[in-house]
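Quick note —
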Amino acid sequence: MTDIAPIRKAVFPVAGLGTRFLPATKAIPKEMLPVVDRPLIQYAVDEAREAGIEQMIFVTGRGKSAIEDHFDIAFELEKTMSERGKDISVLEPTRLGPGNCAYVRQQEPLGLGHAIWCARDIVGDEPFAIFLPDEFMVGKPGCMKQMVDAYTRIGGGNLISVLEVAPEETSSYGVIAPGKRDGAITEVTGLVEKPAPGTAPSNLIISGRYILQPEVMRTLEHQEKGAGGEIQLTDAMAQMIGNQPFHAVTFDGRRFDCGSKAGFAAANFALALERPDIGPELRAFAVDLLG
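Predicted structure written out below.
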């Protein structure tokens, strides 16, 4: 097998306004909303680290400084905790050194494709990962680790994570047209963004994790607006199919749509139940509540 470039960088598009969670997100980025006791963005960064990714690139917007603060060293907090004999190891995962993170602004809300394109100079000429933090993926190993392993196995190219859903749900998502299948890996022959009911080429939906070659940045450079009047990443990826290898990896794990209130609440409850420190108490509460 020829050598393939490793996946060292990840882009996190976090410039959205989070209007579906107002008023909670009026002053707090939606990516900082906690699932139990960790913000959504922390879970995504932890998933990236597990997959061997070294540099985190955050595409931010106005009012997102809390994300930068979260991944900085909180000297006053750590000093106070240490003086009081409290364990500060809980803060260790929140530290990203200067060489391990970068921030760039998306100055206009022109869509996911435009947000990714804003990171072009930092990504450079190498393959990179993309994480949509709203798509909360829970698995062992994590979703991106599964994808990186598949990327190594097939010798590179472009990969997206997919999940099987009921056919009537496909009109709400990006859907792949499948080719040959080898276990969890499926060849992608086409992509359709939010197909009309009954017209989807499969029930495999794109689920918020990507490994893309740098050529996608050149495609996005000239990408016209698509669905919703925005520059769609799906449209740019579709243009690459046939020119570069393109595959999907069916994620072995659970996905929570934390862009919706019901999905966010479900993620909190599901993960809390698994915690030995609070799970038994919550389980007893649920049994009592539901009778």
